[in-house]
């Protein structure tokens, strides 16, 4: 039975398997409400899959959840980060500065971390220009504060660049690169217990954003769809997502996500057939969220996400030969493919 979708943010340490606990940590000013951090008992301490957003309320929620299991923050032996987004990574950086536990991260995140730590805003502005959104979303991109980023982020202790088996005290986690949501996203498979720590790659009720990172992959949606398909090569496992309740079948949700993006690609191609030319124009003709809200209803940050995701869909349609694309004064213009 799937856990109620309305109760998953309740704080505490919720056992999802023997020795494995889901700990929802709050996120500031975010519609997702919480991020699931997973604690795996390992000898006299715990290993965390993801760590949360570095804000006081998340740190306190993590401390309290661990205390209910008889552990302290200092008992965290290792942090395995699924990806570099701040709600998964930055509290881990803060804890490491205090307690010294190592952090592992996917190799594909290296360009993104470098862009963030090197204060690269040119890449963001260049993408906005290509998307035809420079005059619409530039204020959001300009609000990027490099000092905040430098305080929040840092390099990991270990890069994971391939399928790797991570041996813990009583179990083995297989790290599997699943690029798409980010270039270096990882999932962790506990095949012995039938558990998939899926990060943001597979979420039970929403689709993860695609194409929102400072060092953009050449085909983020293509990467994501291939990564989803790769999970079908593994036996079905219980889905332990970063946002939302635990679900019984990862495979069933993978199929739903693949079907969703097939429909979304068709909708995106139809918008171009109906006259949209730039990424920004196309995003404005699509519905957003499960409620099919109009683009104009979204706040500026979510419009930014919507435009980035539309760019990923248009790029894949062009790669497949279903759309033509040409640059007009530095702006990508799409049109139906000529026979």
Automatic annotation (TrEMBL):
InterPro entries: Metallo-B-lactamas, RibonucZ/Hydroxyglut_hydro, Sec-metab_biosynth-thioest, WH-like_DNA-bd_sf. This is Glyoxylase, beta-lactamase superfamily II. Gene3D superfamilies: Ribonuclease Z/Hydroxyacylglutathione hydrolase-like, Winged helix-like DNA-binding domain superfamily/Winged helix DNA-binding domain. Residues 34-243 form the Metallo-beta-lactamase domain.
